[in-house]
Design goal:
The complex is a heterodimer of chains A (336) and B (317).
Chain A (H helix, E strand, L loop, with lengths): L1 H25 L7 H6 L6 H12 L8 H18 L7 H18 L16 H26 L4 H16 L2 H15 L8 H27 L2 H9 L4 H31 L11 H7 L10 H29 L4 H6 L1
Chain B lengths: L5 H34 L30 H34 L4 H15 L3 H15 L7 E4 L2 E4 L2 E4 L7 E3 L2 E3 L2 E3 L1 H27 L3 H9 L4 H31 L3 H4 L4 H12 L2 H32 L2
The chains are: A mainly alpha (336), B alpha+beta (317).
């Protein structure tokens, strides 16, 4: 009986999946030929083939595409190296500093014979990766301050941090992006202006900091009181206690939740499309405005989904493996 | 040595923080005032009484035309946001619970399908999914004249989905359908996107909730001779609910906030209408303030409601 049910179920699943597979693979057109696509019954992956340079690099000058390509590889390599615990040494910070400098030189140019490219022309995958990297790098220290502030004994500081965190978490990211794109110019003194990319980056940092702060607070709360009391008993100052006793343990507990927040943030960077930046999703979408390729949205967005999925899934697999490796420190459990 | 005493230091730190905050706020406000004066933008909410002059694609309950005021246009936006959020919460809860239970099913195939759904949907940005659903409706469905009719009097076309209502059935008139219940492509795509996306998160919460029920509870109920369904209904579900409700509340909040992505596919929600208003009037500060105030109010209302419900089920032991 159970076997029969399983067989029926498998047949039903196959029957549901077969038309999709027929459309996506068997009848699909891979050549970048819109006429062939319109004539065929299947999916038009030719769109992605035709537009791959635009999808990856946006409106970056065509002859210079090797520069964002190299920058993308470099940035992914930096992330990859940082994922390995064996490289978790202070020297890693130096590697990041050098790597980011190289990426900056590649992207902007203007030195060593590289023509200058203003950041308004940056786009595609590298823009998404840069917004994520700098967003997290700048939001994380801010989130530490906010989380510590929220647990501070000083009522005024606690109130400021609580108000900030709850306000940002209570409104949609779009409203912060609108605020950055239309209100930020009004906030600045006359004569000072900042470009669109930087404005979006500021909004993303302010947004991520509030969410990361709550994750860090979770880690802080998971620490047994004894740790705080022991540090106090040793006569450590607040800075010593926080830097050498509390944060190293609290952050270790918070790692899985932090990685989940990182993944969410990577997905959220796609919202910059709404205020007119050319990130990965935006370049995939923009190609459809060309009349020859209009009407292939389903294929374009399935490709976008796959592209984001690859990054997010790799990250979440990593976090699960990490969780198993770093069973929260034995010492912590012994004390608790 | 008053300066060194702990109490004095505490006061000094807090005073310094407040002073820094006030200085920053003062700096921003004076800059803003100067910039507004230079651009001749009058601040304040006076513009709300002026005529909006733009049409809105669809409206729930409220009647609206382009001759009405900005205030009325924004009210339509708030109602549209609430409508899609409310329906989305119901659909996402039903779908998410079903998938969460499938993940606990004894059948390996069903478990695998549910797990694949959760993994894929959670790892793709909602905005991509919204664009996908919208393209699926507008790019792949036929025009109204060749509309698909999967069930009697249910029509699917690239102009939307038409369902029969109690009083009338949809029929083709001119270039589109009239009568029945019309679901626009924008509303359909937004509802599908929000429900499918949030359901993946709800499924994980439901699964964790049931896994948190101690095995002994279920075994004891079975030992008492209760049937399978009675065990779930009377023993497992009430206990799982206590674990499920708090994270469920935050998923509902996320759904409401995520409905603001409507602006990207042209559904006239609050953000979309406020955006049009800001573009027409230049009242950027007021527009963003209205968006934030409305979402904060909705967020607080939902968390108050869920806290009340949570307190009720937690006390009913």
């Amino acid at each position: 009986m159970k076997r029969l049910l399983n067989a029926l179920l498998a047949v039903a699943l196959l029957a549901a999946a077969a038309p999709f597979l027929q459309w996506a693979l068997l009848d699909a057109v891979w050549r970048p030929d819109p006429a062939a696509c319109r004539a065929a019954q299947g999916a038009c992956w030719g769109y992605v083939v035709e537009k791959h340079r635009f999808i990856l690099f946006g409106t970056y000058p065509y002859a210079e595409h090797w520069r964002p390509a190299l920058a993308t590889v470099l940035l992914l390599a930096l992330w990859g190296v940082s994922a390995l615990r064996r490289f978790w040494r202070p020297r890693l910070a130096l590697v990041w500093a050098l790597g980011l400098t190289a990426i900056g030189v590649l992207m902007w140019g203007g030195v060593g014979g590289l023509p200058y490219v203003e950041n308004g022309r940056w786009g595609g995958l590298i823009l998404t990766l840069l917004l994520t990297t700098f967003g997290l790098a700048l939001a994380f220290p801010l989130s530490l301050l906010l989380a510590l502030g929220r647990r501070s004994e000083l009522p005024a500081i606690r109130a400021i941090c609580v108000a900030y965190i709850e306000l940002v978490r209570g409104v949609p990211l779009i409203s912060l992006l609108f605020m950055a794109s239309v209100m930020l110019p009004l906030f600045l003194p006359a004569g000072v202006s900042i470009d669109k990319l930087l404005r979006a980056q500021i909004a993303l940092v302010l947004f991520a900091a509030a969410y990361l702060a709550e994750v860090v607070r979770g880690g802080l709360q998971a620490l047994p009181r004894g740790q705080y009391e022991a540090a106090d008993a040793l006569g450590l100052s607040y800075a010593q206690k926080t830097l050498f006793v509390i944060l190293p343990q609290a952050l270790r507990v918070a790692v899985p939740a932090l990685v989940n927040t990182f993944i969410g943030f990577f997905k959220d960077t796609s919202l910059v499309l709404i205020i007119g930046l050319f990130d990965l999703l935006s370049t995939i979408k923009l190609g459809l405005t060309e009349p020859a390729w209009s009407g292939f949205g389903v294929e374009a967005y399935l490709f976008a989904a796959l592209a984001y999925f690859v990054f997010c899934y790799a990250f979440s697999r990593y976090s699960r493996r990490f969780e198993r490796q770093v069973e929260p420190s034995a010492s912590l459990r012994d004390i608790a | 040595m008053a300066l060194g005493s702990k109490k004095t230091r505490r006061v000094a730190y807090q005073a310094a923080a407040l002073a820094a905050l006030a200085a920053a706020a003062g700096f921003l406000i004076s800059n803003t005032a100067a910039n507004l004066a230079e651009r001749r933008i009058a601040s304040g909410f006076g513009f709300l009484d002026r005529e909006a002059g733009f049409a809105i694609g669809e409206s729930f309950f409220l009647r609206y035309d382009a001759g009405q005021t900005y205030l009325q246009a924004l009210a339509v936006g708030v109602v549209n946001t609430l409508a899609v959020s409310a329906i989305g919460i119901v659909v996402a809860t039903v779908l998410g619970t079903a998938i969460g239970l499938l993940r606990l099913s004894g059948n390996r195939l069903l478990r695998g399908v549910a797990a694949a759904y959760v993994e894929f949907v959670r790892n793709v940005p909602l905005l991509v999914q919204l664009f996908f659903w919208y393209a699926l409706i507008t790019d792949t469905l036929p025009g109204p004249r060749q509309a698909l009719e999967p069930l009697p009097n249910v029509f699917l076309s690239n102009r939307g989905i038409y369902l029969p209502s109690f009083s009338s059935v949809p029929s083709l008139q001119g270039f589109n359908f009239a009568g029945g219940i019309a679901i626009s492509p924008e509303f359909g795509a937004l509802l599908a996107g929000l429900s499918v996306y949030t359901a993946a998160f709800i499924a994980e919460i439901v699964r964790a909730g049931f896994l948190a029920v101690p095995r002994g509870q279920v075994e004891a109920a079975q030992a008492l001779g209760l049937g399978h369904w009675r065990v779930v209904q009377k023993v497992a579900f009430p206990q799982a609910l206590r674990v499920i409700v708090p994270p469920l509340a935050s998923q509902y909040l996320n759904l409401v906030k995520n409905s603001s992505l409507a602006v990207a596919i042209g559904y006239p929600d609050l953000v979309s209408i406020a955006n049009t208003t800001m573009n027409q009037t230049g009242q950027a500060i007021e527009g963003v303030a209205i968006i934030m105030a409305v979402y904060l109010t909705i967020s607080l209302a939902i968390s108050a409601l869920m806290n009340w419900y949570n307190a009720r089920i937690a006390s009913r032991r």
